[in-house]
């Protein structure tokens, strides 16, 4: 199920602009990894290279290698769609499909791909995914109502349910809790804790406590100044990053003296 | 926590004089002022008319004087009684209402005159069910003399309009939709997309008669080439299909432009959400982008139909004009409502007795307006039905 991620000398460009430079990182399967760093340092950009979502933007490209269990996903013969069906993603802003009901939103990965499920199968997928995302109790009586009629936090959990419904190997989350109340945040953190038993989870967060609570390893990204590329400064056990980092920048950032 | 502290803090009763209020006017002020202005304007119009020796009461002068009196009167009253800001706000609001009424005037008067003049013809027995075959000048002459019902109808023209417009829609919508999908989803600002956008803009401005001539020439060339190659027998280019091609030339740019607008407002996040689930691009477009935009696309298409169904010139040069119904798009001439109206006015059946022809023309115009209104209504309903459900538990 879960896969190892290995980036080797990865450079990420928006047109001519080098946004992230020279990332080397090795992410264990069945673990939670947190990306932290100041705004604009390229966390989202790097995260989006992990499932080839980066190249969807015009002019965006990637140099280097990214191995998913030893297979380079940037090999010219690799179909990005295959990569994306293995690496799911939850976006910074909740984006349920407005034309679909809650139920259809959860089943979107199947329905949009034209995969046929029997009624009982799809019922099971919906219930499992919504329970997994801690949303089942709130929506079980209104599954046929539009997904955009939910609150922001509920929508975000719906998006998580949609992602885990297709059972990917890796789940990427870009600040999934930035729009949520403390209770929903806790619910999602619990969820992440459960997800790591089956999936490789990578989460971007601005909340250090959250990074400390959910992740085993933490990657700190930083940027030297505007217009300069973002870089991976330090990547280590979360406890080490927060208690005894080896780089000065990291220490400044996690202790709140910077950014 | 639940100690009864609330009891002790009852809110103070409201003050008799609220220090936040300003001067106000009763709600009915505007109605009273309007009635007053109408009366004053009437008196003024009568006085002016008498002073300049007009025969009768000057109705237009009266209508013009009402706002001329009402607007400044309201301004002054509000300025004095409330404050300057309210007064100026009210003044501009009234100006906007006035502009709205003026803008509505032509529309209302067109509808009024078409309905009042066209209704008797529409109610004539058999008007919708019969065509013009066998209606000669003698028959119209007799109708005039005996005062009987006007004979003849527009069945053939309705059939022609519907068949030709439907064919034009069938041609234009796929082409327009695919073009705009290419422009929005695939082109990424290439030179080809800029060229397409440019030519679509140029096409929007093509005079409709030019579209008709183009369709006629293109079809004639196609038929002559095909028959010289022995692929088909030579035949006249004048047929319903040629007219449909002419109308498509007018419709395609409208469809491209409205659909493009609609596809562009679909948030990128939805596309990315779909890609992130491992959905292919064409499926994303088909199942996410188009359903999200479908209400706008559908109403855009309906409005483009409404725009071409009233075309006269391109039909005249491509489908000609007949007096009986013809369902066949690829052979024989066809009549449409606008051409029918034009012919009835321009070449009355009985040159000496034009009234029956005029009555038929007005009635046909009424039918055309009704069809266009129904199309607009359909566009609204379609937009309502397909619109993404924003709320609702
Ligand atoms: N679509 C884009 N086109 C061009 N440049 C971009 C684009 N998106 C981001 N960038 C640039 O890339 C750099 C990294 O941005 P990114 O969104 O990855 O930052 P981030 O670390 O996720 O920040 P935040 O914490 O605020 O979300 C920034 O300098 C940003 O301006
Ligand atoms: Mg970001």
Structure description:
The complex is a heterodimer of chains A (259) and B (393). With 259 residues, chain A is α/β, with parallel strands linked by helices. In chain A, strands 5-4-1-2-10-9-3-8-7-6 form a ten-stranded mixed beta sheet, with helices on both faces. Chain A has a domain at 5-93 and 169-254: P-loop containing nucleotide triphosphate hydrolases (Rossmann fold), CATH 3.40.50.300. Chain A contains eleven helices and ten strands. Chain A is 34% helix and 25% strand. The radius of gyration of chain A is 18 Å and the shape is globular. Chain B has 393 residues and is an all-alpha fold. Chain B contains 13 helices and no strands. The model of chain B has no long low-confidence stretch (mean pLDDT 88). The A-B interface holds A 51, 53, 56, 58, 81-82, 84-86, 88-89, 91, 93, 95-99, 108-109, 111-114, 142, 145-146, 148-149, 159, 162-163, 166 and B 188-189, 267, 269-280, 283-284, 287-288, 291-292, 388-393. Bound molecules: adenosine-5'-triphosphate (ATP) and magnesium ion (MG).
Keywords:
heterodimer, A: 259 residues, alpha/beta, Rossmann fold, 10-stranded mixed β-sheet, 11 helices, globular, B: 393 residues, mainly alpha, MetI-like fold, 2 domains, 69% helix, flat, binds adenosine-5'-triphosphate, binds magnesium ion, nucleotide-binding (chain A), Phosphate import ATP-binding protein PstB (chain A)
Over the alpha carbons, how many angstroms does the gyration radius of chain B reach? 31 Å
SSE string of chain A, helices as H and strands as E: EEEHEEHEHHHHHEHEHEEHH
**Could you list the spans of chain B in which at least 5 consecutive residues all have pLDDT below 50?**
none
Poorly predicted tracts of residues of chain A: none
Order of helices and strands of chain B: HHHHHHHHHHHHH
Q: Tell me the overall shape of chain B.
A: flat
State the helix count of chain B: 13
User: Which ligands appear in the coordinates?
Assistant: adenosine-5'-triphosphate, magnesium ion
CATH class of the domain at 5-93 and 169-254 in chain A: Alpha Beta
Strand content of chain B: under 5%
The average pLDDT of chain A is 91
Structural class of chain B: mainly alpha
